[in-house]
Amino acid sequence: MLSHKHLLGLENFPREDIQNIIDTAFNFREVLDRPIKKVPSLQGVTVVNLFFENSTRTRISFELAQKRLSADTVNFSASTSSLKKGEGFKDTAQNIEAMKIDAVVMRHPAPGAPKHLTEFIDAKVINAGDGTHEHPTQAILDMMSLQEKFGEIKDLNVAIVGDIDHSRVARSNIFGLVTMGANVTLCGPPNLIPDTITDLGVTVNYNIDEVVEWADAINVLRIQRERMGIGLIPSEREYRKLFGITGERIGRNKKEIVIMHPGPINRGVEIDSGVADSDQAIILDQVLNGVASRMSILYLLLGAKDGGMK
Amino acid sequence: MKIKKLPKKLLFQNTEILDPVKRTNKKGNILLVNGKIAELGIFESPSDIKSIDCNGLTLTHGFCDLHVHFREPGNEDKETLESGSRAALAGGFTRVCTMPNTNPPIDSPESVSYIIEKSKDCPIYVHPIGAVTKGQQGIEISEMGLMNEMGAVAFSDDGLPIQNGLVMRKALEYSTMLGVPIINHAEDDCLRCDGVMNEGIISTRLGLPGNPNMAESTMVYRDLKLAEMTGARLHVPHVSTATSVEHIKLMKNNNNNITAEVTPHHLFFNDESLVNYDTNLKVAPPIRNDISRKAMVKGILEGVIDCIATDHAPHTLHDKETTFDLAAFGMIGLESCFGIVKRVLVDNEGLSLINFVELLTTAPRKIMGFNCDLLKVGTEAELVLFDPNEKWIFNNKNVFSKSINSPFYGQKLVGKIKYTISKGYISEIS
Question: What is the ipTM of this complex?
Answer without folding.
Answer: 0.90
